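sry for the spam today, last one i promise. struct tokens for design, 95 residues
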């Protein structure tokens, strides 16, 4: 797990899974084929969502596009993430 973003509104954790049957190739976390995804937590709504596959790839490319356009503000990043948290149905549970 890797915390990739944390604001007052959202937290985003990148989760990369390694398969048991084969060692992870060099740079596996950077490829679309790497199993895993992103857990996005909406702190105000107290809900979270896990995205993987094509949706996770789209999320990452959108974040990269924001970064390439310049230094995005926290509000710009939060607005982008909010588009994904609208799908969140899982309430947060503290273990």
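last one done:
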């Amino acid at each position: 797990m890797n915390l990739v973003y944390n604001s007052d509104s959202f937290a985003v954790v990148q989760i990369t899974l390694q398969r048991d049957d084969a060692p992870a190739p060099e740079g596996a976390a950077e490829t679309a084929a790497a199993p895993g995804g992103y857990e996005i937590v909406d702190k105000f709504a107290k809900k979270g969502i896990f995205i993987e596959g094509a949706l996770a790839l789209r999320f990452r490319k959108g974040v990269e596009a924001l970064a390439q356009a310049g230094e995005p503000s926290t509000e710009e990043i939060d607005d982008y993430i909010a588009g994904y948290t609208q799908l969140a149905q899982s309430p947060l549970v503290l273990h």
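Helices lie at 53-68, 74-85. ok im logging off now
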